[in-house]
Amino acid sequence: MPKKIKQQYKTLKGFKDVLPGQQKYWDFLYEKTRQASVDYGFRKLDLPILEDARIYIKGTGKNTDIIEKELYAFEDKGGNNVALRPEFTPGVLRAYLEHGMTNQPQPVKLFSWGPIFRHDNPQAGRLRQFNQFNFEIIGSDLPETDSQLIVMIASLYKSFGLDVVIEINTIGCQECRHEYVKELNKFLRKNKSKMCDVCQDRMQKNSLRVLDCKDKSCIEVTENAPQIIDYVCVECKDHFVKVLENLDEVDVIYSLNPRLVRGLDYYTRTTFEVFLNNESYPELIKIENQDSGVKKDKNKEDNSDDKKIALGGGGRYDNLMEILGGRQTPAIGMAVGVERVISALKFVRIEVPDPNQADVFIAQLGDEAKKKSIKMFEDMRRENIRVREAFSKSGLKPQLEIANRLGVKYTLILGQKEIIDGTIILRDMVSGIQEIVPFDKGILELKKRLANGNGIKIYTDNKPNQESVEKLETTLPIQNNQDQLFSESGPESETFELDDDLENFD
Hints:
Helix content: 25-40%
Shape: elongated
Largest sheet: 8 strands, mixed
Number of helices: 17
């Protein structure tokens, strides 16, 4: 009888685990984003992952790539056509209508965070399940609303430690954009043979998307295309000028991009995208372009020095509420990909604090010491001291090795002699110096040292038992390598690559 081979299950293509060693980046971004939402008056809205597919087909637009190629849609057991959310905005507006937020003081500011699903081809910076945080301001058509959202986003990226550039444009309202689209179509028809196959198809559905194409031939064609700013009506132009004046007032750095149209059908007037500022990271950008390992497409524009690393985008959508069955309600929003920002933080080598970083480790020898250590652990936790332990280990050496890996500042060591003497050993894990202190004052001594950052400078004549001395003399490397605790094969590792495609932020 052939030997049965055990099957090893793995994550699906385009899906990914977030391991313990990476969680500090997620915690860092979430806390910064949550604080910004509070500062600017946004309230958190959690939405279901599964929705009626029609809100995306109608809202996102049936002719968009998201709906035509990427939507996870299926019929459930009740015969309903449902979909995993490919973006937040239609679901946010559905909740706004369903829960009567039209009766609340306007505008309504909403903040969301969570997973997004698109059946896309996995590549650098793209997954089939990724995460976004999302800001929506519903119920105001004032240019000051647009400006404040952009100011908030610029401030948020600054709090991340990233230097960014915001590109901005106006695509007008439905009325004035109609005239522009007619002129654009005339221009594109004359140059149809020079464009890629995708854009030749886009011409028939949404010709504005041709301006967003990354294909080299299409970029060359549209260099001479009519610009929408020359066709917007007086009201839309005035609105855009006021947005820019407000940004100038608070010194937000931006650049005008007449090709910026965004990828969804519902956008109106102000559109914007956020990119890493290449001028702030010239050497890193050069290394990224040389060593990314991504094969270059001969049809793609290859201008490595000007490669833009996209981090987010958004815009105004004054007609989407009406499309979804409500009354015409102006709104603006933006989305940011969490994984993409984390990749950018690592790319520019920004260190983020680890909220799980412990300060103290308790090591114990013997049954009685273990009992007292369990109680001391609880006492320290109640005192808000970040403490770790390894009660499953009995030897001192393996416990100190764990303490080293955790990168704690101090280790408390409790053995049989210390119990008899009513003392405890306090070891500075950086210098290796240790001190014997009264057991009942151990926590107080720790709090003093943690509060002022001072190491152990006082020496005593008391000596620990011989067993403790012999084991403490073992040379142990002092290093902070917490990731090793979560992998049998060693530290977690990951390759991060960034591209300039903004599909995940539409």
